[in-house]
Prior knowledge:
Elements: H1 3-16, H2 18-37, E1 42-43, E2 46-47, H3 52-63, H4 77-105, H5 108-124, E3 130-134, H6 138-149, E4 153-158, H7 161-169, E5 178-180, H8 186-191, E6 199-204, H9 209-222, E7 228-231, H10 235-243, E8 248-250, H11 252-265, H12 267-277, E9 294-298, H13 302-313, E10 317-322, E11 332-335, H14 341-346, E12 354-357, H15 362-375, E13 380-384, H16 391-397, E14 401-403, H17 405-418, H18 420-432, H19 435-449, E15 455-460, H20 467-474, H21 481-484, E16 497-503, E17 509-511, E18 524-529, H22 533-542, H23 544-552, H24 560-581
Parallel strand pairs: 3-4, 3-6, 4-5, 6-7, 7-8, 9-10, 9-12, 10-11, 12-13, 13-14
Antiparallel strand pairs: 1-2, 15-18, 16-17, 16-18
Amino acid sequence: MPIERRQSIFLTIIRRLRSPLILLIVIIAISVLGLTLTPGPLVDGQPQYLSFFRAFYFISYTATTIGFGEIPYAFSDQQRLWILFCIYMSVIGWAYTLGTVFALLADRPLQQAFAQMRFANAVRHMGAPFYLVCGYGETGRLICHALDQRGLRAVVVEINEANIGEIDLSDYNYDIPALTADARNPDVLRQAGLTHPNCIGVIAVTNDNEANLAISIAARLLAHHLPVVARASTRDVAANMAAFGTAHIINPYKTFTETLALALRAPAAWHLHRWLTSLPGTSTDHLREPPLGAWVLCGYNRLGELLIKALEASGASVTVIDHQPLSDTAYTWVQGNASSRATLEAAGIQNAVGLAVCTDTDVNNLSIAVTACELNENLFVVMRRNHASNQALFEAFKSDLTVVPSEIIAHECLAILSTPLLANFLDAIHRRNDEEWCAWLLDRMTRRLGMASPEIWSERINLTRTPALYRRLMHGESITLDQILHSHANRYEYLACEALYIVRDNGDELIIPAASTPIRPGDELLMAGRTGAHAAFILNISNENALSYILTGDDLQRGWLWNKIVLKREQKKSKASVIQSNP
């Protein structure tokens, strides 16, 4: 926080406490003066008087309710009468002062100023790389938890104070500095660490498109080197973001409809896409493929419009149910309440192969789906879930596909920021457009790694990340992909991971590289593996002992203590051999 800001807070406190402090000073001054003028007991016929120091000392501990007693002698009745007056006068002064202090502590602007000061200090002392997350709603919460689980730090700016309060109640491994403020303000973003040297990215996932646009623009102008991931649910906002150079713009509805279109057009590629992009450990073996044919869509909105285009582009026919007639479209539609059996029957639900429920109310979506499945139990059901609190209800219904905007955005953000190579790999697969090859690859990978979605990570071969492997390559050694995928616990076994993609320094791309592919300095590898394989692979290529063992079988012993032990063993062996040879 700027020095001027701290000074203004201090001056505000002093200004609020000015009147009670002056009153206390006046009360103490009058009390001390009166006590020095009041005659005490007689000594040798002369009344005794207190000095200013003794009077001030006595009034100090009396006014603060400590009460040591009458010093340096027992008081006269005149002095005790004056002390009674001083006691009641100080009670009034302290009551007024404490009331002012409590009112000052409860002052909202001052509390916010103190919170900003603590927040600024926490951000300024962030010694580890962190992401600036703007918006701590359902999406921001998922992102922060995922970052925390991966050992990454986050700083949060959220306009809703109730959401900020949830951060302190969450079980994060790392403290998350959070500020209640409008992230559209560039000064707030600066204070939140936008220009901090350890800030490695900006994630704009508020519920306000205009706010996300303002954050993207500020990040582009103030910290153009940082990657920005922003949420945009309308075309206009997405176009404005793109015009300002925002590299990653996420529209959850567009992302979902593109995935659904892929499932309709290329089921094998869709299954492979789902297996690679789902959260690690998520099983994907129960998913049905969306069928082509007649579909019924309930709720014509942004999601509904995109779904209609995706379905019709794939060759499906769509009947829309909505309260308002679609006067400006050529779609077949039925006006009415979609949860009504009569309305669903009028839309041809008995002969439909799929149902897409896209209204803005979760209860309506569940009601429509339940009624439709009673009329046609073979429907492929796509449902939109709007609120996280209704997750249990949707899980109990078990739709084929559930559109959860917050989860889609969170997953896309993490994929973009943590494994950017994955998006390039998926694009390469889609460009290949080979269903047979996708089915073969999925079968091979799932046989090797299981049906549960794998952990995906990328690694660049350089001195910082992979020092052991990089040094050997720079010294001219030839090391293949197959060699570094062996286990450092047993070099005759393989790690539970596969290389999906290699990008060379010269721009060459290798999709599913062969085991004999030589590794070069500067290569960036996209890997997929079971839980635990990531750490084992990193150890293989970064630790000289592990790498030497899997390449040659030699177990290099390093360290002073281990060398001492090995030296003593060798000396004992040599002595024993000498004794045996010279009995």
